[in-house]
Amino acid sequence: MHPSSTIDRPVEPIASSSRTWARAFGDIRDGLNARQLWAHLGWQDIKQRYRRSVLGPLWITIGMGVTALGIGLLYGLLFGNNPATFLPYVTVGFIVWNFVHGCLIEGLDTFIANEGLIKHLPAPLSVYVLRTVWRQTLMFLHNMVIYVIVAGVFFVSISHAYTLTDKITPGATVTVHPGLGWSMLLAIPGFLLIALNGAWVALLLGIISTRYRDIPQVINAIIQLLFYGTPIVWSLDTLGTHADTAALVLQFNPLFHLVEVLRAPLLGQQIVWQSWVVVLGMTVVGWVLAMFAMKNYRARVSYWV
Amino acid sequence: MVSIDVWNASVDFPIFDAKSRSMKKAVLGKAGGKIGTESRVPIIEALRDITLSLQHGDRVGLVGHNGAGKSTLLRLLAGIYEPTRGSSRINGRVAPVFDLGVGMDPEISGYENIIIRGLFLGMTRKQMEKRVEDIAEFSELGNYLSMPLRTYSTGMRVRLALGVVTSIDPEILLLDEGIGAVDAAFLDKARTRLNDLVKRSGLLVFASHSDEFLMELCNSAIWMDHGQMKMRGSLREVLTEYKGRDPFEGMSHEQLERLGQLPVLPNGDPA
Q1: For a Cys-Cys bond, which of A5, A206, A229, B22 suits A110, CB 3.0-4.6 Å?
Q2: What is the least distance, in Å, from the CA of B146 to any CA of chain A?
Q3: Interface mutation vs chain B, best among A16, A115, A209, A297, most B CBs within 10 Å
Q4: CATH annotation of B3-93+206-246
Q5: Considering the entire predicted model, what is its pTM?
Q6: ipTM score here?
């Protein structure tokens, strides 16, 4: 073995350059720059799922419509809620929940699902995260068609101050929502915050899940439980005298706050600033943790998948 | 300046079996004290102490037995694996052609796959759309490009992959042995294109078991053995040592001339 030309050879770096902030932030920057790549992959995923079906991705919209209509009417009848206001509530609740849930669940699997690509093509890890979040965003946009329809049909009942329930429980305070208005614009930052949270979850938990394959199962179980503990098919407003206790417990459910920052503006419900503060806090803390994970374990992911 | 530098790099793969990969052992192991789980994860030393410097114009062949670390070295040079110990620096746009099934979606058309692969290699959609004609012509796939990729044979996939990487002017081209699946006529065509490419832009590293391919594409070689570099030198030296005989022996004058392997007389003229 003889060394090749040593004339122009640069000096060896003192420490291994894998675990640096520069590389971690560089990964995110390069990932964002490869917008065409992840946008294409994300869209491809959706097309792939509905390949050879006649209606294609329209099935996302139809599936959501059927669920929302069914649950809205059923729960409206069962619990004596006003369908004209409760059906939009359930619809938007499901749409937002699906987005949050999709980002979480598929975020955990981001790197595991892209194993082949990670091992064979050099690309920033963040490309796969963006692919996942973008796919969920596209699903969300498909579902928003249902929102537009439902909001249109029930416009008369939610465009002014309204309540979710007809029943008046003695001793309970009745929450009156202000109805659709300018506060709807808050849906945009609300959506962006959820997407930002989805991205850090995919990065941080994605890395952890790649190393410890039990983590996705554990988190799946927790999220399933949290679904029942999050007001999607039920509402705090209709709980009557238990509402205060429930509201207190819900403060500790991060998914409740995530759902709330997008659902409330879309329905013209009361804006609870507490939820915005919690979600902002989660975004900051989550991203700090995710960047630490990126700094230390970014280069390990291709070994672990 | 296109270059790859690797200093004392090692690549160790942790092998997590079903048990040690789970949290159970990590958690329970900690609670029990003493025995660290990490140390119980078996490690495969795929590469050990690789020091290497490749520059513009290098056309390096990788030889060695199965499992000697050729593919892992290619992935290290591509930047897919960052060394567990030591360090590496890659300057230049890398285009790898490794596993031909990966990065290609079997359900979508060849045309779509060209676009996706191009995007992965850092091109834009527009740039790739301009090249589709050229790739179609080079790969001779014609109407097959609108068929789903699952209908392609291995050789056709190689044609497509080579068409893409050679059309985009990469600076560093890394080829794994899979490209052996193409027929002789196509290889001839590919050789001209690959040679042009390497002359124009950069460097080529090619892992193969076929002397013929190596002689066509490379001028120097590295012999990998048990994850280490056993020998580095001109292709002829390394192949002679590796095979135990000179592969260029018995070749006609024309062949040698074409491969640039004519012995050089003291006055500098080819014999």
Answers
A1: A206
A2: 15
A3: A16
A4: 3.40.50.300
A5: 0.87
A6: 0.82
